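3.2 Worked example (two chains)
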Amino acid sequence: MDGLDEQPTLREKAYESFTRHLLARDVRPGQFVSQRRLVELTGLTLGAIRELIPRLEAEGLIKTVPQRGLQIAHIDLNLIREAFQLRVFLEKEAVALFTRSASDETIASLLKRHRDIAEAINSGNNSHELELHAQAVDWGMHDAFIDALGNTIISNVYRVNSIKMRLISQERFRIDGRVGPVMGEHLKVLEAIERRSPEDAVGALVAHINHARDRALRL
């Protein structure tokens, strides 16, 4: 029984370790890696890595290329289009529900974080630290919308797509130099939520996501 209890934990450790290294760019999109390299990277056993690979393949984060080995997900135009399309489908419903159900305190907190960043930008703060903070606030807002659904299946799908979105962001565009415009787009969404207008919130959110998609496709 002890062994059965430990196995899921070990598999989760392997998954979390891999995705952490992937987002830290210790392995890069399109790169070929061996199972031994993944062992070295994660510090886990070869058995754990072999159990991990089918999950990564199913989620599209890695694929087996005959005679070449394991390849990290490659960022191409098809992946960008599909990832953004899925994001729109999921977040439209999420933001509509969030607009109706979020507490005034939650909305006020999100607005304050964004307005504080916007004010810092207007005051001439263009520091890397502010950009990192803005990126975290950016992801946090979108995560809050999905969390409001309270749907584990959707959350799991969104989590995998979010990893791909962050890889796209790293490869194609970053928030660097665009903190002001991005915060402005977010504030339009949040101000519509504050008015409790699902239609306006959805419209502003879709426009925001489509702007990001178009920038990624142009690059």
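3.2.1 Second chain
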Amino acid sequence: MAIREGKWEFVSRTRGIEAVVILAIDDADHVLLVDQYRVPLGRRCIELPAGLIGDDRAGDTPMAAARRELEEETGYSCAQVEDLGFFHASPGMVTEGFTLVRARGLQKIGAGGGVAGEDILVHRVALRDVPDFVAAKRAEGFAVDVKILLLLAHGMLASPPQPPRA
């Protein structure tokens, strides 16, 4: 729902629903990424697996939602889920926040792809290859979710500054 407060315009999810974002790295140092079409962007987007907490389940928790969404989106289950904290991705534009979790002890149990109509594609990418993978997807026209910075930050901070784009 769009809200106007003075000069500010922002979006608030109805019913106060929040999200969970899953950082799932397997024992072979591969991360699970997903891509799906995002209507607001008008194109597919590379993302960490994620989902809503309590959108259709009373008493839902971030940890339960993380396990469910990991399985639905990627086809992997996990032995453990660790809470890494609560964050806001775009605090100047949306009220929504998310709980970031780390999934450990991954096991492939299904195809993934999400629920009906989601058309989610799963990518298992070696951590060392994430920058090249993201660059290739950008070149194909994909959007990249801000949370992918978790996987790119080290390389960005270690590299010499690049000249600004024209």
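3.3 Remarks
The CA atoms of residues 5 and 11 lie 11 Å apart.
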